[in-house]
Amino acid sequence: MENLVRHRYWWFAISLLVIVPGLYFLLLNPLITTGSFAIGLRPSIDFSGGSMWDLRFPGKTAADVTTGAIADIFAKNGFEGAQVQLSSVDVNGTAIVEVLVRTKVALSSTDPNSQTTAVINALKATFGDVTREQLESVGPTVSQESTRSAIIAVFGASLAILLYLTWAFRLAPHPVRYGVCALIAMLHDVLLVLGVAAILGTFFGLEVDALFLTALLTILSFSVHDTIVVFDRIRENLINRRSGELFDDIVNHSVVQTLPRSINTQITTLFTLTALLLFGGQSIRNFIAILLIGLISGTYSSIFNAAQLLVVWEHREWRNWFRRGNPDGDQPAIPA
Amino acid sequence: MRSRDLYSLLLIVIVAGVALFINFSPSQSFLGRDVRFHLGLDLQGGIQVLLRTTSATATKDEVQTAAGVIERRVNGLGVGETVVQVAGSDRIIVELPGVENPDQAVETLRGTGRLEFIDPQGQYIPTGTVVRTSGDPNPAKLANTNPVSGTATLTNTVPTGPIYQSITDGKDLDTGAVQPAFSQGGTLGSRPAVAFAFKGNSARSLEQFTSSNVGKPMCIILDSEVVSCPTINAALPNGSGIIETSKAEDRDRILNQLKYGALPIPLVVETSRTVTATLGQASVSTSIVAGIAGLIVVALFMILFYRLPGFLAALALMIYTVISFAIYRLIPITLTLPGIAGFILSIGLAVDANVLIFARLREEYRRGRDIRTALERGFEESWPAIRDSNVSTIITSIVLFLFGNSFGVSIIKGFAITLFLGIVVSLFTAIVVTRTFLRLAAPVFSEQNAWLFGIDRRNTPSETATTAEAI
């Protein structure tokens, strides 16, 4: 039988291999390209404030509409530096030009109506018929508050889960370890997803919005969900421990025992998420993609990080990390 | 077959039957309750606005009063399924689904509704002009002018121009006397109008002013904007009169704003989201396809992998879907696009408990236990894992719900609610429903048809292998 615990440092290395490039784009890339420290995520109007327009031009082809002309019209109406993105939607069999416009400034809070009317009329004068499918505007106070609530939500959820885990594993030896290891696995997933979002944001313009945060929190809970299933097995096997049984073997045994469940649950979630990704509509596509990445990471981290970290902790292997010789921990330094 | 199992089966049949009835009731009502699906703004189109007060001294009570006034105005619009709620200390969320002209509706709602009469010093001020009055010398409409050309910069200009003397105080308006009316004849014929009356000091000063200024103009101001400047024909006795308008829509707007009282605090639009109904409709149909596809694939997977137990789990999954929808309709839960995603995601969660149990069942059977013991142990042994993992997801959904509340965005709340309900309902279907089904199916089991249960004893139990290795 495969000994998964023996190769634990390889599993950690694989995690790092994915996380480190993400961290580069999250933290270093903005510093290198702009010279100032910033987080390499592209905030949507939910967090940065501004407005987002979804416009359709019936009877126009992509050749008739240019991003520059649209940006000019927005600039003339008080929205400097608007980002315009062209795409095509299929409405009853005919392709229609769809334009997404993002502005840095929110609509006027005292008189939003005349402002939108002015923009739409100016667009109509140039391009003929224009329909406004969607318009969102977020003012600066709300966006600042949203950012604050987002941070509170992530920390609040983490703390609540840590406390619950410590309580749930109170009968196992060293209950705090389970909470902390689950939390590290969770951190792994958060960093990985943030890193992927930073990479996608840098190259494909992926925006971090309220839905992204929802996805992140869901990933947190699913990650812990998976970890608990594995930990529960370890707890059970520890209680029924035979004399002379090594901690490493118990962990390995538990991981292997829960493997079919981990894989099968992962597969069913993959099925439902793929269905959503394929048919679920444009507006939640990014949300589902992030969920998909995060859930795979969550399953990986529960098997290959959380459980393995328990072993590392059991042997206090960090004492060997900076010594000469083989730090790979092929053999446990101290028998349990 | 024990009677306990039969009672459980009866319970399941009743619950599923009621749920089915709620879902397919032709009258779309259950015990007098409307059980139609409530669709969120992103699915049926409409507008959501977050109004914020600009008054720094606004108290919680004033915000609450303002929300009450807005709610009455919303009801005056005659739109269904509206939401008006106070968020935080200085904000009001308003949701108007399926409104024809959302921008106009919001203008009606957030207008302060402060009616003033001013002495224009003999001038006829054009309709629509924003003026400074002694009642409100620095109107918000003048303070923050947006640049019209791209080169102009946004500055907070100090309003200039004359301050007109207010004859009346908006607070003295007798809202009970505000009624639709028609002006009598004149050169323009009968026109839509609003009847009003003032009380107290304002009534006296209006009567005084009109009686001593017959033949001169007087301007009617609503929220710092000139409605009209009629010539005074005669004194207005007891401070009552009518406001003429040129269009029926204007009449309705003024009527709505005055009738339900003035807002105690000025409000501005902080955040707004509008979606057209066509876009919402497209989202509904794609979600249905995604949901059905997800359900079918998961059911097929369970059947192929776990055979008969998998089939029973798929059956439980269908019951899960029917119950969930019935709950959405009963409470009711407003369905949004992320909410539906939350439901589809919870399909995966719903089978997770079954996957845990079946994996355990296989293990126990391989250890040499008979099918019944393996079944019972499978459920018992997997319970702590199911409980602990679901509690952590419940914690997250609660955090998401609270967070979504402070966000003032219903999309996150929708996701949190469906996820939460998904966990609770799936615990019922995965534990009670599947367990009862399996217990009832157990007598069918024999060594010959073990394949039907997807279990066999041929594989070396992994238990011994590991133990041997360990020792």
Overall CATH class of the largest domain in chain B:
Mainly Alpha
* Strand order across the largest sheet of chain A: 3-4-2-5
Just give the CATH class of the largest domain in chain A. Mainly Alpha
Proportion of residues in β-strands of chain A: 5-15%
CATH architecture of the largest domain in chain A: Up-down Bundle
Strand order of the largest sheet of chain B: 8-9-7-12-13
Q: Can you tell me the CATH topology of the largest domain in chain B? A: Multidrug efflux transporter AcrB transmembrane fold
Query: What is the average per-residue confidence, as pLDDT of chain B, rounded to a whole number?
Result: 79
Low-confidence stretches of chain A: 327-336
Instruction: Count the domains of chain A.
Output: 2
Q: Per CATH, what is the topology of the largest domain in chain A?
A: Multidrug efflux transporter AcrB transmembrane fold
Structural shape of chain B: elongated
Secondary structural class of chain A: alpha+beta
Mean pLDDT of chain A: 83
Measured between the Cα atoms of the first and last residue of chain B, the distance is 43 Å
3D structure, described in words:
The complex is a heterodimer of chains A (336) and B (471). Chain A is α+β, with helices and mostly antiparallel strands and 336 residues long. Chain A folds into 2 domains: 8-34 and 142-321, Up-down Bundle (Multidrug efflux transporter AcrB transmembrane fold); 50-138, Alpha-Beta Plaits. Chain A contains 10 helices and 6 strands, in the order αβαβαββαβααβαααα. Chain A has helices at 8-34, 45-48, 67-76, 112-127, 140-168, 175-204, 210-239, 247-279, 285-314, 318-321; strands at residues 42-43, 50-57, 83-91, 94-103, 131-138, 207-208. In chain B, strand 1 (29-30) and strand 2 (33-34) form a beta hairpin. In chain B, 52% of the residues lie in helices and 15% in strands. Chain B has 12 helices and 16 strands. In chain B, the strands form 5 sheets. Chain B has a 5-stranded mixed β-sheet with strand order 8-9-7-12-13, with no helix packed on it. Chain B has helices at residues 3-24, 41-44, 60-77, 102-110, 140-143, 200-212, 248-259, 277-330, 337-366, 371-407, 410-441, 462-470, and strands at 29-30, 33-34, 38-39, 46-53, 83-87, 91-97, 115-119, 132-133, 163-166, 179-182, 192-197, 219-222, 225-228, 240-244, 267-275, 334-335. Chain B has 2 domains: 3-39 and 276-470, Multidrug efflux transporter AcrB transmembrane fold, CATH 1.20.1640.10; 113-143 and 159-249, Gyrase A, domain 2, CATH 3.30.1360. The relative contact order of chain B is 0.13. The interface between A and B is large, with 92 and 88 residues.
